[in-house]
Model the fold of this input.
Amino acid sequence: MFIWNWGIGLAMGTAVILYLRGWRQQPPADGYTLLPQHWRIVTFVAAGVVLALALFSPLHVQATTYFHRHVLQRLLLVAVVPCLFFSGNPLPILYTGLPARLQDALARLPQRRPLFCHLVTRLTNPVISWFLFVAAFWLWHDVQINRLLLQAGWVHRLENVTLLGTAVGYWWHIMNAWPRWHAPMPPLWRVGYAALGATPVKLVGLVLLFSPTAVYHYPAEVSFYNLQITDQSLGAAIEWAVGGIVFTWTAVLLMRSWLKQEDDKPALPESAWATKEMMLAPGFKEKGPIHPNRSM
Done:
């Protein structure tokens, strides 16, 4: 546990240093990155704070005591942290903050290891990323595996790593963040892809909410005065009610952004659409002039 905490803390501290260094140097605008904006550093810091809350605060310890606290930790890892992290597109800034020698090594990686890069690209396409995210989220809700993670701390830490890792791969496509190894999805596809993330979360909450018996048995139980609310029902209600909010609102914002882009497009000049061919109904052709002496 001590080594784990120090390792995560060292990784987060290194990321902060690289980000600040890259922020000062300003990454190049090569068509794949965006110039730094002040709001981007806010989202990066917020992602780090929420990640620390999920892994280092009493929430991490209480996640193996109360089911509803475990649900909160999972939602932070699969929705809030990756959403905040990629909303500011921080990878170009982190890349710029790396030493020049390491930047050069990463830039030459596709030439030095083409098969490896090709394999990584194939394994990180949007369909596989979504499948891995759903599989990991549902796998850790298995009753036997859940019982095991309550008994062994390393299993709980493995759960955190896999949930966060698969969620990062999924949100990378939702936000269309750098590096862009895949062709960008059409805007409406991205909207649906983001909304699709709420499905596995809300489905688990729905199943547990209407379960007649207790599925999970955690060491502690919650109680509310004169209310028939159990620890499992509270966690299920959280997953059902708020589990998909981040995904849904992201889809709404993506739709709003697309509509704004469509509205800002300049109108076509009249010469481009006010032609005889464009005014004809589909399937019809313009008839030629009728000769006056043509016999009937």
User: Anything to note?
Assistant: Residues 9-100+122-263 form one domain. The radius of gyration is 26 Å. DSSP finds 17 helices and no strands in the chain.
